[in-house]
Design goal:
By secondary structure, the protein is an alpha/beta fold. The chain has four domains: 188 residues, Dna Ligase, domain 1; 149 residues, D-amino Acid Aminotransferase, Chain A, domain 1 (2-Layer Sandwich); 129 residues, Phosphohistidine domain (Glucose Oxidase, domain 1); 162 residues, Phosphoenolpyruvate-binding domains (TIM Barrel), CATH 3.20.20.60. The protein contains 30 helices and 30 strands. β20 and β21 form a beta hairpin. α4 runs antiparallel to α6 and α29 crosses α30. The longest helix has 22 residues. The protein is elongated and about 95 Å long. The two termini are 53 Å apart. About 1% of the residues have low confidence.
Length: 810
């Protein structure tokens, strides 16, 4: 039965934020409204704002607290700590009024009876009446207490939750936000514990936290209770799931990254210390904490929660969600959900692009948070007692941060931590403050000396770098609003999946070149034949390293295929539903030899540039089984993950007969040109491809011109040789004639023709030539896209060609 002091989740909704705060109102909203969507929320109840004021009045605390806060200078960290501790002690020593105590005990007993567990373990969480608003939410302002058992412990935890309204960081935050501290109440949420101490827990966002890419669910997780994930105590597993194909029923997992997960928080027996951290067994560390089926279930939950809150808000409302898996029942639960507060406010028509002008010695690396660069003197801090050492503009270096660190994070230029993942405290607060952060470095406090000049770069993909010294960098401000699209399609060369989500925000017509060898080299690192013949390898050290790298995937072949599929899928999803042209592997023998185990399988060639590469490799007995793995990965992307926007390209095809052999082999592996909309192009990069273009084009859907190799073979210049590098020039008359011939051949047959070589990115006059020759698309390096788009628009205007459409959206 409802009282003025207690409300049950079953009767709460978002209209009740003033009474029970954002967190508890959201729990009630989901418990009531989303059960029909299959979303499980542990039941519970909340004390009200009325109960909080009743407690303060009963103990005559309002006036003393107000007086203490009125005299406080929040910029003085020592005074802040002293006053905060004094206020908290006043609250913890207070007595809970009888009627509030009776209401809490009655509600707790009801919850016990419902679950048939005595005493029932609950979480007691804080929910302030001004928290978790779309424009005001720092991570962890107040406290939560886990594995609380029995009436006495619940009542004590409620007092401690009330006291946490006056943690140092909460006092400081409210002052910064302009909130009157004496008009904010606290609600305690008492919720049945999920036994994630026996399984796993984590955080997920219905948006990519680094780029604001809105079509992916980002999931992090680790073993044990979720507090370690939130606090950044552990390096988490990370996963991305693609929302558009998920809704169509596909297994749309884009990426999986294994975290260290070295420790887990579990139940402890002591009432004074109800939880503890223990080490995770090595075998468990090498496994993902969630199965693919569980990932897809969580992603469905995230999509449903986002849709529900977006409907209420009248616009897309990305969500920050905490989940937990019950180790007894095996079921997945949602234990919190709040609006995402960074990208929801982002101006989608303005792009800031940071780039280093030069690089220095790398001190350490970790996971990048944001996409900015900052430089300054390092301030290495071991604990909160050293906060006074931090000066405005310093780079904060620490083992990890927690909410007590927020007053000094606000004056930092950047943040670097040993521990944590992209959803840890340091990462969340850094995003809200607009700071670059590198988390999970493992060794920052050892590698970076106090007061050392450093540069923190998060502008190079998902890996963040800390460089020695203050390095020069530039910031480019790009306005995307009302940018017209030329008739000539402007596509992009994307080398690595790491930056695909960020690159997709630049106006484009898709990807003209995605290279498999970049994914193999950077994300797999194993020679495919070494994966296939792993158990027979004679080199014990290589065999063990391959086993270690692939452990989370079950075996090296599965690791190779699925990791390759994940890399392609990430790029394809970033630009979906636009076309993404993926070039099958084009490593040369010397490059393949550098992969783990590669020297056992590769020949030594005098001139690898003209040797065992491209199409010739695919059907060769020494490599055809390895090529089959590439085909298997592409099928997984197109069919299992639903990313049918992927087209394929075959490189370095020397003869029409060779083309037939490769296409037949691809058909045998389920990749048939024209089936399920599959387009297969040929990379036009040999003079023979141009001279005999009509014959080659009968076998393919068109050409993508590789101007780099084409130029070197027309001019007879090794582009890797400094001795003759000055002769290499794509603008030479002979090269231009060949380009014209290739374009004309495609036009005669009504086939696609684009260019994906370096020339258009480097030479504006090459762009003029290609536009005038009516090429279908120009694929460019990402940093050249906007400038070249404007240039193409100008050339087309001179030719009397009108833009396709206006608007900055892709």
């Amino acid at each position: 039965m409802t009282t003025p002091n207690v409300r049950y989740f079953a009767e709460l909704g978002m209209a009740d934020v003033p009474e029970v705060g954002g967190k508890n109102a959201s729990l009630g909203e989901m418990y009531r409204m989303l059960a029909g969507a299959g979303i499980r929320v542990p039941n519970g109840f909340a004390t009200t704002a009325h109960a909080y004021w009743h407690f303060l009045r009963h103990n005559r605390l309002q006036e003393p607290i107000a007086d203490l806060l009125a005299k406080l200078n929040v910029q003085d960290v020592h005074e802040l700590a002293r006053i905060g501790a004094h206020i908290r002690s006043l609250i913890v020593r207070g007595a809970i009024p009888d009627d509030l105590q009776d209401a809490v005990i009655d509600a707790y007993r009801r919850l016990q009876d419902e679950n048939n567990e005595h005493p029932l373990a609950v979480a007691v969480r804080s929910s302030a009446t001004a928290e978790d608003l779309p424009n005001a939410s720092f991570a962890g302002q107040q406290e939560s207490y886990l594995n609380i058992r029995g009436e006495e412990q619940v009542l004590d935890a409620i007092k401690r939750v009330y006291a946490s309204l006056f943690t140092n960081r909460a006092i400081s935050y409210r002052a910064d936000m302009g909130f009157d501290p004496m008009r904010i109440a606290l609600s305690a949420g008492i919720q049945k514990m999920v036994r994630s101490d026996l399984a796993c827990a984590g955080v997920m966002f219905s948006i990519d936290t680094e780029t604001g890419f809105r079509d992916a669910v980002f999931i992090t997780g680790a073993y044990g209770l979720g507090e370690n994930v939130v606090q950044g105590t552990v390096s988490t597993d990370e996963f991305y799931v693609f929302k558009p194909t998920l809704s169509a029923g596909h297994a749309s997992i884009l990426r999986r990254e294994l975290g260290e997960k070295a420790m887990k928080m579990v139940y402890a027996d002591s009432a004074s210390q109800p939880t503890k951290n223990v080490d995770v067994e090595e075998a468990a560390r090498q496994c993902f904490c969630l199965s693919d089926e569980e990932l897809l279930t969580l992603a469905h939950y995230a999509v449903a929660i986002e849709a529900h809150y977006s409907t209420q808000a009248g616009q897309l409302q990305p969500m920050d969600i905490e989940w937990a898996k019950d180790g007894v029942s095996g079921e997945l639960y949602i234990v919190q959900a709040r609006p995402e507060t960074v990208h929801a406010r982002r101006d989608l028509h303005h792009l800031e692009k940071f780039s280093l002008n030069e690089r220095g010695r790398v001190l350490c690396t970790g996971k990048s948070v944001g996409d900015k660069i900052a430089a300054g003197r390092a301030c290495a801090i071991q604990d909160v007692s050293q906060m006074h050492l931090m000066q405005p503009g310093d780079v904060l270096v620490a083992d990890r941060t927690d909410p007590d660190w927020e007053p000094i994070m606000k004056i930092a230029a950047a943040v670097v931590t040993n521990r944590g993942g992209r959803t840890c405290h340091a990462a969340i607060v850094a995003r809200e403050l607009g700071l670059p952060a590198v988390v999970g470095t493992h060794r920052a406090t050892e590698a970076i000396a106090d007061r050392q000049k450093v540069t923190v770069s998060c502008a190079e993909g998902e890996t963040g770098y800390v460089y020695e010294d203050e390095l020069p960098f530039t910031v480019e401000h790009l306005e995307l609003n009302n940018l017209a699209q030329p008739r000539t399609k402007i596509m992009m060369n994307v080398a690595t999946p790491d930056q695909a989500f960020a690159f997709s925000a630049i106006p484009n017509d898709g990807v003209g070149l995605a290279r498999l060898e970049f994914i193999i080299n950077n994300h797999i690192g194993i020679h495919p034949n070494a994966a296939l013949q792993w158990r027979e390898l004679s080199d014990t050290e290589v065999r063990e390293e391959i086993g270690r790298r692939s452990a989370a995937y079950g075996d090296p072949v599965r690791f190779y295929v699925e990791k390759l599929a994940e890399g392609v899928a990430t790029i394809a999803a970033a630009f979906y539903p636009k076309q993404v042209i993926v070039r099958m592997s084009d490593f040369k023998s010397n490059e393949y030899a550098r992969l783990l185990g590669g020297s056992m399988f590769e020949p030594e060639e005098e001139n690898p540039m003209l040797g065992f590469r491209g199409a010739s490799r695919y059907y060769a007995p020494a490599f055809r089984d390895a090529f089959a793995l590439e085909c298997q990965a592409v099928r997984m992307v197109r069919e299992d993950k639903g990313l049918s926007n992927v087209s394929l390209m075959i490189p370095f095809t020397r003869t029409p007969e060779e083309a037939d052999k490769v296409l037949e082999l691809m058909r045998a592996h389920g990749l048939t040109r024209g089936e399920n909309g599959l387009a297969i192009y040929m990379m036009c990069e040999l003079p023979v491809n141009v001279i005999d273009a009509d014959t080659f084009l009968e076998k393919f859907d068109g050409f993508s011109i590789g101007s780099n190799d084409l130029t070197q073979l027309i001019l007879g210049v090794d582009r890797d040789s400094e001795l003759v590098a000055g002769i290499f020039d794509e603008r030479s008359n002979a090269v231009l004639k060949m380009l014209r011939m290739a374009i004309e051949a495609c036009k005669r047959q009504g086939k696609y023709v684009g260019i994906c070589g370096q020339a258009p990115s480097d030479h504006p006059e090459m762009v003029d030539f290609l536009v005038r020759e009516s090429i279908d698309s120009i694929s460019l390096n990402p940093d050249s896209v906007l400038a070249t788009t404007l240039h193409v628009l100008e050339v087309e205007k001179q030719l009397g060609i009108r833009p396709r459409l206006k608007g900055g959206k892709n």
